Amino acid sequence: MNTLAFFQNMSPGSIILIALIILLLFGAKRIPDLARGLGKGIREFKDATKDIQNDLEEGIKDKDQKKA
Q1: For residue 11, what pLDDT is reported?
Q2: Would you state the torsion angle of the CA atoms of residues 57, 38, 12, 18, taken in this order, to the nearest 10 degrees?
Q3: Counting Cβ atoms within 10 Å, is residue 31 exposed (0-12), middle (13-18) or buried (19+)?
Q4: Tens digit of pLDDT for each residue in 4-24?
Q5: Could you tell me if 23 and 31 are in contact, meaning their C-beta atoms sit under 8 angstroms apart?
Q6: Minimum mean pLDDT among 8-17, 32-41, 44-53: which range?
Q7: Nearest CA to 19 among 29, 6, 31, 34?
Q8: For this UniProt entry, which segments traverse the membrane (predicted)?
Q9: Under a CB-based contact definition with an 8 Å cutoff, are residues 31 and 22 in contact?
Q10: How far apart are the first and last CA of the chain?
Q11: CA distance to 25, 28, 45, per residue, from 31 (Å)
Q12: In three state form, how does the secondary structure of 29-64 look?
């Protein structure tokens, strides 16, 4: 929930204004494509961080097994 914490300080009117500006800048046809691309990018980033974390954990386990 921390990712949306900045919305707590914004009024509903401000959020609607931002949404309208985005709609005017990109158009209704482009917004789903932009959201889809953003979602894919976030998913790839999460997968990469999980892979790095798994590699680090495996390295620590291997290092502990070599000591024993």
Answers
A1: 85
A2: 140
A3: middle
A4: 666 677 788 888 898 889 888
A5: yes
A6: 8-17
A7: 31
A8: 6-26
A9: yes
A10: 42
A11: 10, 6, 21
A12: CHHHHHHHHHHHHHHHHHHHHHHHHHHHHHHHHHHH
Cα–Cα distance for residue pair 58/34, rounded to 1 Å: 36
Which CA distances in Å does 64 have to 22, 47, 67? Answer: 52, 26, 5
Residue 7's pLDDT is 62
Structure tokens at 19: 């949404």
Residue for token pair 């691309």? 37
Q: Which two tokens stand for residue 6?
A: 């900045």
